[in-house]
Amino acid sequence: MKKFLYFSAGAPDSTAGTEQVACFPADQLSHFEMATATQLRVYFESSQENDADSGIDAAHAVLTVTSGKHKEAIETIAGAIADGKALMITVADEENSKYISPFITACASIAVVDAS
Predict the structure, then answer these.
(1) Whole-number Å distance between alpha carbons of 10 and 43
(2) How many domains, the chain?
C-alpha cells in the first residue's frame, strides 16, 4: 500500500503565498539535506516544473532539528516509512505539536510548486 508523509507548518490561513499543510507520497521522497546546524530539508520528486520566480527548485519541507541530530531524525523518518503499519505518517504537525522524532522540534516551512 502507498504511504504518505504529512507536514504542517501551522494552521491553514487561506493565503496563496505559503503552504501550511502538505502530504507527500513517501515513494516520492528524493533526499534529505542538512541546510544548517538546526535545519533539515526533506525533498520530494515532482512532476511540476520549477518556480524560478519564487525560488522553489523542488517541493520540500524544512524541519527544525536539535543541533547535530540530523542523522537521528532521518533514521526515524526512514524507519517509519519502512515499517509496514501506518499509511499516513505524521512527520511534523505544528498545529498539534506532534513530531515523529524527539529531535524534530518544528516544521519551519513547506514549499511546493503550485500546479498550473
Answers:
(1) 19
(2) 1
Rounded to the nearest angstrom, the gap between the alpha carbon of residue 2 and the centroid of all alpha carbons in its chain is 17
Domain residues for 42? Answer: 4-12+19-111
12-21 burial, b for 16+ CB within 10 Å, e for fewer? eeeeeeebbb
Q: Vertex 56, ends 50 and 44: CA angle to 5°?
A: 80
Report phi then psi at 32, rounded to 5: -110, 150
Q: How confident is the model at residue 116 (pLDDT cuts 50, 70, 90)?
A: low
Q: What pTM value is reported for the model?
A: 0.84
pLDDT tens-digit profile of 43-72?
Answer: 998 755 544 444 456 889 999 999 999 999
Query: Does some domain include residue 116?
Result: no
Q: Does any domain span residue 63?
A: yes
* Domain contains 42: yes
